[in-house]
Amino acid sequence: MIREFRLPDLGEGLTESEILSWRVTEGQSVTLNQVIAEVETAKAVVELPSPFEGVVTRLHEAEGTVVEVGKAIISFDVPNAGGVPAPAAPAADAAAQRRQPTLVGYGAEPEKAGRPARRARRGFVSPEPAVQPAPPARPGPPVQPAPAPGAAEPPVPTAGAESAGTNGTPAVQERPRSTPPVRKLARDLGIDLSTVDGTGPQGRILRGDVEAAILRSSAEPSRTPDRPQPVVADAPHLGQGREERIPIAGIRKHTAAAMVSSAFTAPHATVFLTVDVTASMNLLEKLRSRREYDGVRLTPLVLAAKAVCLALRRHPELNARWDEAAREIVRYRYVNLGIAAATPRGLMVPNIKDAQDLGLRELALAISDLAGTAREGRTPPAALTGGTVSISNVGVFGVDAGTPILNPGEAAILALGAVRRQPWEHEGGIALRQVTTLSLSFDHRLVDGAEGAAFLRDIGDVLAEPAMVLALD
Predict the structure, then answer these.
(1) At the N or C end, where does the chain have fewer CB atoms within 10 A?
(2) Tell me, what's the pLDDT at 310?
(3) Residue 399 forms part of a structural domain
C-alpha cells in the first residue's frame, strides 16, 4: 500500500522547513526510524526518521525546497500497511515532546535505556547523535564522478554514496561528519570534505577545519589554472560587485522577527552593577584542582548561572511572562535557563530545563553541552522553546557591558561582561582586583525598578562573595 509522509511541525508553531538533503533515493528499501532527510527550520537542523518500513516510491520535493508543514514530502510502498503507524504520528509526537519538561543530553540525568528509540519516534535526534551507519547499497543512479581538473567545484561526498569495491560490487562510503553550514562553506570554497581531518567530537569536521584546509591549499605552489583562488571569509561571497546580498532566512529570519517583537512589545529597562569577583575567580581555580571537576569547563558564566537560579527564589517576579490574551501574569515555579549562543547560523538561545535543580558541576556540564550542540547546528527544537529567563555572556567577546534585548516571552535577561584586572577599593586601600559589570534588562510591565535592582544586587553579592549562597540557598 502506498503511504505518504507529510512534513510534521518540528517546533512550536513553525510553519515551514527547508529540505537540506535527502538520505534516501526512489526505489530504496528503508527501515523504521532510518534517517530519510535532513531539514532546517527557523530554529534548528533536524534529521527526519522514517515512519514506515518499506520502499521509497517518490520524493515529492527537491533538496533546497522550502516546504510548508502538512505537505507530503515522500511516499512509501508499505507491506502490511495496517500494522504501521499513521503518517500523522510524527507531528503528534512532536507536540508530545514539547510538553516534556526535561531534555536528555544536558547532563541533568544519565541516559536511560530506551530513550534514543523514543526520541527517534518523535522525529528528533539526540544533541550528540552516534555515528549513523551508511545505508546498504541500493539500486539507483550511479554516483557522479569527480570533476576533471578545472571544473567548477568538486562534490561533497554524501551519506550512502557508492564507489567500486575490490570485488567489483558497489561499496558504501560514509559522508564525512559535519553540519550543513560547514558543508555549504566547503562547497562554496571548493573544498572536498573527504580530504579534511575533523577536530571536533568523534572526528566531526568544524568550520575552522575547512578554513585551515583553505590556508594549506593556498600555500601550495601549484594550483589548477582555471580555478579561482579561494578566499577565507566569515561568509561566502555571492558575487563580485561592490555589494553583497544575503537572503534573510533560517535562524537570522527567526531571530530578527523575535527581537523586533520583543523590543516593540515589552517595555525594556536596564540596570547595571559593577562587581569585584576576585573571590569567585579564586573559587573557580580551587574547584578546577578537585578530582570531581576533572574535565569540567568552569567559567564565570557557570557561577552567574547558579547565582541567577538562587536569586530567582527570592525574586519570582523576574521568572514570569506577561499573558496579554488572558490578562494574566504567569509565574514559573521552575527555571528553564536560556544561554545565548553565537553560532555560524546566527544567534540562538537554547535553554537548560529545570536548571534550579542542578548543582554547580551539573550546570557546567549542561552549559558546555548546550553551547557545543548549538554551534554544530544540532540543537533540538524543544530546547529552543519554553525558556523562562536568559543569560548573555558578552564578556567572551571582550565587551564590558550592554543592554540585552529580552528573549520573547521572558521577563529578564542578564548580560555578563568581561572580567578584567583593574584598580579597586579593597580593605581600605587600592588593589588590583578582578572586576566585571552585570547588565540586567527586564520587562517593566512585570518588574518594577526596585525589584530589578534587588535581583541584580543578589546576583552581584553571590559573585562578590560565593559564601553568600548559604544565605540565599
Answers:
(1) C
(2) 95
(3) yes
| Domain-terminating residue out of 42, 71, 99 | 99
- Phi first, then psi: what are they for 4, rounded to 5°? -100, 145
60 is catalytic: no
Domain extent for 43: 2-99
Rounded Cα gap, residues 343 and 206, in angstroms? 12
Distance, CA of 439 to CA of 448 (rounded, Å): 16
DSSP one-letter string for 167-210: TSSEEEEPPPP--HHHHHHHHHHT--GGG----SGGGPPPHHHH
User: What CATH code is carried by the domain that includes residue 46?
Assistant: 2.40.50.100
Cα(239)–Cα(218) distance, rounded to whole angstroms?
21
Instruction: Give the residue from 99, 122, 143 where a domain finishes.
Output: 99
Of 115, 54, 61, whose CA–CA distance to 87 is shortest?
54
Q: CATH number of the domain that 338 lies in?
A: 3.30.559.10
d(CA 440, CA 381): 27
CB–CB of 193/177 below 8 Å? Answer: no
The string of pLDDT tens digits covering residues 214-256 is 666 544 444 444 444 444 444 444 446 788 887 777 666 767 7
- Scored b (16 or more CB within 10 A) or e, 245-271 reads eeeeebbeebbeebeeebeeebebebe
Q: Rounded to an integer, what distance in angstroms lies between the CA atom of residue 305 and that of residue 374?
A: 18
Catalytic residue from among 237, 268, 315, 444: 444
Tell whether the torsion through CA atoms of 77, 79, 82 and 85 is positive or negative: negative
C-alpha angle 167/173/176, rounded to 5°?
155
Q: Which residues contact 464 (CB under 8 A, 6 or more apart)?
A: 275, 276, 277, 279, 280
Q: Which three cell numbers stand for residue 458?
A: 543578589
**Cβ-based neighbours of 273, under 8 Å, separated by 6 or more:** 437, 438, 440, 456, 457, 459, 460
Specify the length of the chain in residues.
Answer: 473
Residue 428 lies in a domain: yes
Q: Summarize pLDDT for 11-39 with one digit per residue, the tens.
A: 656 678 889 899 999 999 999 999 999 88
pTM assigned to the model: 0.55
Residue in the block written with cell 523504521: 32
Q: How far apart, in whole angstroms, are the C-alpha atoms of residue 473 and residue 461?
A: 13
pLDDT reading at 146 higher than 80? no
